[in-house]
Amino acid sequence: MSEVVYEETATMIAAGELQSFVPFGRQHCRNHPNAFNLQLRELQPASELWSSDGAAGLVGSLQEVSLQERERECWRLRKGCKGVREEEVEFEEELYAAGTVVVWSQGSRTGASTVYKAFTVDGPVQQALWCNFAVPQDKKDEEEVEQTVCIIQSSCINVHTVTGKDFIAPLPFQVSNVWATKFGLLLERKNTDAQLGPPGESLPTVFSMLHPLDEIAPVVCKLAGLFEGSRVQYASDATMKMVFSCSQPSVVVSYDTVQGTHSVWALRRVTQDERSTVLRCSTDPVGTPLGLMAPGLLPSHLRNISRLDSPGGGGTGASCPGGAGSPLHYNALHGHQSRVVTSSPGFHSRLHSPSISNMAALSRAHSPGMAAPSFSGASRFNTSLQSPAPRLHHGLLPSPNSTINDTVLAPEAEPIVPDLCMEQLWSEAAGGHREMSSQASKVFLTSDLCENHYLCFLVESHQQLRCVKFIESNNTSQLIFTSVTTVSAKDAEPLESIGAMLVLEACGSLVLYTGVTRVSKVFVPGLLSPSFNLTSHLPLRSTPAEKVSTPANAGSRHLQRLDEAVMPSPVTEARGLNIKQQQEGSFLEDFTFQQATPSIHALRDPVCSRLTLELSSGSMLRISIPEIATSELVRKCLQAIRFILPKEAAMKVLVKWYNIYNAPGGPSPHAEWNLFVTCFMTLMGYNTERLPWTRNLHFEVPLSPVIAAKKARPSDGGTEEDLDYLLGSHYHRQMNPQSLCPDNPVTTETMSPSSDPRPASLKMDMAAPLFPHVPALFYVLHLVYEELQLDELQRARASSLVCLLQQLARDLQLDQYVDLYWRDYPSLISGFPETSIMDPAVIGQMQRPAFLRAEPPCVLSWLSGCLRGEESPPFPCLPDICQRTRLLVLSYALYIRGDENASSTQVSKYLTKLSAGQKYCTSEPHQRSRCSGEQESSSRESLAEQLVVWLTSEGFTLKDLDSVPFGVALPIREAIYRCREQPCSDWSEEVCLLIGRQDLTKQAHKMTLAKTRASVGSGLSLEPPAASEADEEEDGMSDIIQEVTGLIWSQDLRVQEVRRLLQSSRPVRVSVVQLPEVSDHEYIEEKENKLLQLCQRTMSLPVGRGLFTLFSYQPVPTEPLPVPKLNLTGRAPPRNTTVDLNSGNIDVPPNMTSWPSFHNGVAAGLKIAPASQVDSAWIAYNKPKSPELANEYAGFLMALGLNGHLTKLATLNIHDYLTKGHEMTSIGLLLGVSSAKLGTMDMSITRLLSIHIPALLPPTSTELDVPHNVQVAAVIGVGLVYQGTGHRHNAEVLLSEIGRPPGPEMEYCTDRESYSLAAGLALGMVCLGHGSNLIGMTDLNVPEQLYQYMVGGHRRAQAGASRERHKSPSYQIKEGDTINVDVTCPGATLALAMIYLKTNNRSIADWLKPPDTWFLLDFIKPEFLLLRTLARCIIMWDEILPNTEWVKSNIPQIMRGTFDPSEDINMETMAQAQDYITAGACMALGLRFAGSANSDAFDCLYELARTFMKIMSFAGTAAAQTGYYNLQTGLSMVLLAIAMVMSGTGNLKVLQLCRFFHRRTGGEMNYGFHMAHHMALGLLFLGGGGYTLSTSDSAIAALLCALYPHFPAHSTDNRYHLQALRHLAVLAAEPRLLVPVDVDSLKPCYALLEVTYQETKWYKETTVELMAPTMLPELHLLKRVKVKGPRYWELCVDLSRETQHLQSILSRDGVLYVKLRAGQLPYKDDPQGWKSLLASSVNQRASGVRAFKPEAISTFTSEPALVSFAEFFCKTSEELQQRDDTLVLFSAMLYECVTQECPEMLPTYIAIEQAVGALRRGGAPPQTFPLWQMRLVVELWDGRVRRGAATHHDALMTSEFLPVMKNMVDVALDRWLTDNSSVLRSYMRGEGLPMAARSVMLASFLVYRSIPSLTNTHTTLEGCSSLGDLLCRSARLRIPLRDLLRLVPVLLGSTSGTHGVPGLPLQAF
Asked: Residue 586: is its pLDDT beyond 50?
């Protein structure tokens, strides 16, 4: 007990804030409709129920309800977590569990408790606790923490996260206890005898669960034993009980029930070695087999593990079997097996024969997997006796054969890999001399006031608290436990926030300890006084039953303890019985009679500084223990004292102070500082009664020279006293300095008891505890004082501190310090007597630390020197206490000095840390010359950026900057201003906040436009032409973001026009004129035929609509997706009669609408944005009830795949959909899943696809009847999933599938073309862009084989697997053994094109040239010419040029020349060939410039389109020769090519073309052509103008699939190309629209962009200006994108570094936040820029100021501070009439701030004006602080001028305001100097300070002129004969020249020149 300090003084402190405590959950449960309550309600009469507390009701009915239910009530409290609530209030959280209900509630001191969440579970709750799970993030190493509540029931754990997820984890065994740790949950298995099984095998007892979805794994423990290596094993000791766990530091405490000792373990993740050690279970133990060692050598905790009492018990953690003869014999035989047994989780049948390897032993263990948790879990963890060899371990070794057979019986499984490891850190010594210790009932961590850490555990049987001190090792990886101290205690709880713990002693008194140091008793008002009765602190309720009810709880607590198998003391038991009797007897009288004054019998639930007392009466009280200090200043001083003193001394001081401050009836807060000073000086040895200035520090508690025990003073209303306090306060003294001046002897006399206040009577008490440390304490308090100077909010407190400091400085005879304090507070310090009271001899006895220099450290002069470019020694700093000093000194070093490493490696050059060891860790000041200006100015920008980023990383915010004094803050403001002009695009949110760029902060928030729109309401939606609400909704296009389209196309209504063209949900208009000769019946038929034609168009619309509305909608998870109907009816004018196709008058093709409704579903599904919340349940929820909508749903599924949401669909659902066998659903699902897994080679999807492709199944597999179209979809799916991977096997199969021959039984005979094409496309995708370097495929001869498919020839013999399948030829289709080119050519051509895409491989391209003789030309279908031309062009990618000459160059020479009429030329062949080749070249041009909006490409294609249309419109020879169909095909391809180039731009000319074709419905305009035209329209407005096409390889592949130039002839036609593939165009879409959004109004707006292209071989680096919102070019072409212009703050995104940032902006709707500059209006309101604030003042700035009207301010800035400043300070009113000049000045300041874009400078301007004004008016400021700031401002400005950088954009202050102010200061100070030169002279001679009035001006002069402390300077400066002499001598004083010149007249003593010289410096400046 040596450490207990001051035991003899019986001090006492008072506890505060008493409240009666009833867990909130109990009250809530009373009203909660769970089963238990309902049962109660039935038992009780209603009247009684309502009138009573819930608990009282319980007491009434406890006879009927079993006690067991009631006893389950438990609760825990904790400090509220920030993540749960937004506002930063301190609050407590309570988790209450009773029965099946768990209530999580929150309540703060101010607010009442509220339920946060309440849970009801099925079974009774065993335990409820908070736990944080770490969820690893896939991409990075960091982990996200999920806060959860875990509710433990007997069979499972329910986990509920704060974010709303919930999990149920089944428990495979009975759990006795669960602990929350840093990593997750720790579970303890219940040990029942049945489960022990064979004694040879002990199962793990401790398991971990790192996440509710993870498997439960056993925990490994690492014992601190003799041999390190062999000590890793599973924690399988049944005698080990957990008693405590903690996450910071990560430790658990366990108790050994046999030995009766506690151990501490570190909990960490398992290392790889430990994992393998445990799983390997090596056959030879390290060193000697453990069993053979002498028992004495075994570590004690190992020895006792054995459950037998035999002395030689096996030391391996397994107990010896009974029948084994001597233990040694057994162990010799079983040395290795028993180790195997110990160290792996319970495997039933264990190998015993050495002949089989260990791995085999591990693999044959038990039931496979964790599929059914209940079953396999049981088999895994219970050694249930039905295992194949139940008593295997009992006899000696069985024969090897039997063992082998037995083990093979058990099915295979792998052992469970452990996650966590417990490493033993410390263990109690097992004491044999005294009776065994019982298990700790409470364990907690606590730390004392000096930050020593203790782990304490309360052993109730001994009534002791054992405190184990621990420290972290240097690398903080390990905890080292040092000494144990015991404190006698009945109960104890820690109080974190005040570094103490509250101990309940056996006698029933409460005592506060800090660590193991006793502080004082705690007095709980009312508890110990007899007058205390229950009603005094319980809130009065209506019935007396309330008071009756409380004891039930006390009973339950003890029953609960019994339940936990902890033996309570007899007393407790008696008390518990006592209560039961009372419940039966007449309760009320007994109760009050027996326990009139309840005593405390337990403590619980500590949170911060509050905890609950449990009284013997059963009621509970919540009390709070007071803080160590409330005032910030006292707290800072205490921190500094604690830092510098040795720990024992510090502890004494803190305990002493705590007792004085918190005495019952202690001081009110305003006297806290006075009390502190008195206490502190007394401890230093001063006699505070005798010191004149401390004697008038009034406070309530009288203090004798030795601070003795104090009694509470009766309070007396406190009127006199407050007046006294006021008079004695510092404030009073400052305001009336005369009253306390020593010139007024009367006051001094009356104050002092002896009339002669001589130093003689003021002896120091040299035995005082702090006496030796006075100099060190003085120094740290001085540093605290310097820190306070840097914080405007704290500076007022510095004046209190300065009184104490000046006294100490005088006593220590540190004159320069006194001088410094006098300069800061002249009027205050002049008021103190100057005498020092210490003998030099006494001073000699103090320990004077090395760091106490004669020259005082002054932070302001350090910063000032920095600005002047002088070298200064490093500034001393107290770590963690002087944070502000550290930040500012390093900021100046970084920004002003230009030392880039100031904040990292070079810190010691600028700061020295003090150490408590009294040594000065000094670093020599580096002697360098003054910094050169050039290098600095060049890197100034980067320095500003570094400074801002560094400050943010230190947690510095704008709020902090506002509290930095204006002069000190100016350089930081300047750096911020610089960064604001040109910020980096990738700065973090905090940096952007600091520099005031809300636009960038918002950008970092990752919002999409849809979300912002929801928060703001739609802004500028252009009203569509009036349509009724109902129509509006259902056309499926209402989700396009109107605000954006309205900005892009602001001049017209083209978006409405597109909606009109693409809507398919309203009836069409069928206008047929009835001719006189037509009968009515014929007329109806005519109308219906016309409608059928129109329907061809209607049915093709959804394909285009899907592209138009792409990704424009965020679905609501609770509603199904709205799908517009496909309306195929018509209305006939004039009577609007309905025309219907189903009337039976005409023949309608069957299944006509099946594919269109599929497309309709796709179009609806494509609206869903990729970023929206879609889950598996929602997808299934959208499934329609009626079967006729199944096709739509199939399309919806495909669409979900295209936007990436289908990956969320559960595998089970996918299986469900496919087994239905609905063809469309299978197609949609296969294509969707493959698109979602593009290029991932996902195995599960591959299996899914293979089932549908016969070629991928083994040859012998059963023939599955897969519909043809589904096979096509599956083949394309393989291509998508393996896109670009070059996967050999798939390529080989697909290559052979291109030429798949028709089978014998009519299989593979219909629509063969589409299958072959699909195989070709898929092959092309698999090998996309690989060209000739296909790894490992050379033997397949891919290009040659494809060439053969393209031009024909003999079919090769089928290789390998497929030979079997194609044995017999088809009986219908006679192809012979040649390749049918008509089938294979398209696929092969496109495969070649995709494999060699962009490779510019000329030899392959030449294979694809059109033939150059007429004869050969006749052999090729014209369509194939189109494909070959297209293929050849995209292989020679770089040669595509956007002009007509290039397009013509693709036509072979023979067609271009003049024709000899004698030749026999088939004109039809020629015309068709020409058209198709042109169309192919156009397609290639479209792909090459897709999404680029290249004007040359557009002009070229547009001209060609017009040419085609001209040919078509002349019904002459050309059109007849070519054929309408061919011309129309060519025209459609050209139109699609234009749409690709102009994709997303909504070009008007293309829209007109599309509209023209939309109107043409007659003749040969079939379904396919309509589809092509409307796809073109969709591409033109892709994603409502938000998306465009990419030209990446994968995008080109998708476009080739989607825009394959053979369109279906009718709506059921899939012969040449599967219609579903048309939608793959979505895979080529990418968001490249940049939408500027004003950060203040959150509305989209216009902004000027400057886009710089990188240099390429076609053009140099160029810059273009675009008005956003606009489409950006492809990002890889760009160098940078910049928001420019005078209107908005600049913002530059540099793409040469990384495109990730811009891509993420574009993918979130392209929202780029911009911020309007002050004085500017948006382009929408002011297109020309004539209304801006600066426009009026372009010519002269001065006129701008005059023309500026403050009233108009609100139109130009949204800054509320500026607006209200203009409102109140810049308008003339009656009171302010005479202050006209002030108004002008204020208006000028305001104008300055607005135009310079620095509203935050307004306070600085005002502060400068105030400081100067005060000096001029001569009403001297009471302190010189503003002049310090003024001097720093001037010095910063001078430095800028010296460097020639005073250009106005660079500096914050403009060039007019500051010189004027500076001049005013100079004039005022010069005027003073001329009048009072004698005062200055006497000061410089060291003749004592002048009178108070003059002293203020003198101090101001000295500060502003930066004249150093002149105690020893008069010798050097006096008597200089000339100016030169003076300059030489003053050089080492570092007085700036212009300030020195002011002193010349004083120093040279020349009275004559006085008036001439002061004029000089002004000109010099």
From this structure: no
